[in-house]
Amino acid sequence: MFGIQVSQFGSEDVLEYTELPNPQPGPGQVRVRMHAAGVNPADTYIRSGGYAFYAPELPYTPGFDGAGTVDEVGADVDSFKPGDRVFVAALGTPGCSGTYAELAVADARAVHPLPETLSFGQGAAVGVPCLTAWRALFQKAHLQAGESILIHGASGGVGIHATQLAHSAGAVVIGTAGSDTGVELVRAAGAQHVLDHSKPGYLDEMTEITGGKGVSVIIEMQADTNLEQDLKALAVYGRVVVVGSRSSLDFSPRLTMIKEATIYGTAVWHATEQEAADALTGVADALRDGFIRPVVGDVMPLHEAAAAHRRILESSTRGKLVLSVY
What we know:
alpha/beta, Quinone Oxidoreductase, Chain A, domain 1, Rossmann fold, 7-stranded mixed sheet, 10 helices, 29% helix, globular
């Protein structure tokens, strides 16, 4: 089979498209013939080396997310059979051989049925983004029906699914995006209000939207840029969940006192086994019931993985970036 191999940590140039041995499923594992693989920002951090959460043994094949058909099952697996359409969400499960390849092995608990109504590309968009959105909304912020929520960066891979899940939970959703296309995407995902974060003073609209009270919850994708303004837009006793931040910032901690705010950091790597299982179950159920409608952004061929790693870090990314394997 062909796939991507990383033999040393470094820039995206270390991603080599090459022939690899077929991975063999062990007990409790499933081998999937991949049709699409999802690309996440974390993939680039791991490839660079020194990522705080995970350092794979070299050489390795990247990728935790993907979708395809079951090719072979290992001993003790009776929940799948060859030919089944599935998606793979393998972050946090040690048995994944990497989804940037024609064949990938994963623990059976990381493999779930892919509804016939969804494409393989949509299946590849589920894993890390949806699990991150679920954990931020329900395991950290404990979002409740009727609460107001600002999703800062709602047109991205995590943000669009957080918007869908928050809407399905009965929250009043305010999303932000940086282009007309992004604004329409967020509105279609269920946001009642959409703000263009490329315009100066866009958060001034929050006063009218919330009647001057501020929002109960904020999901933040770029805390180094937005956290200070988030705290100003927050209601008293509000919660901010930091999903992403790429550098440091300078702000007044007094803002947390004024709002008696709670700031949570979140990373799916730290989910307990039970939390991970609950999130996977919740996401799979929401996918089955149509509450999650995965949004695919750019689609690039597998051999252009290096270009995909450059693309995923651009702020204009909308939806999930996917590598086409077949």
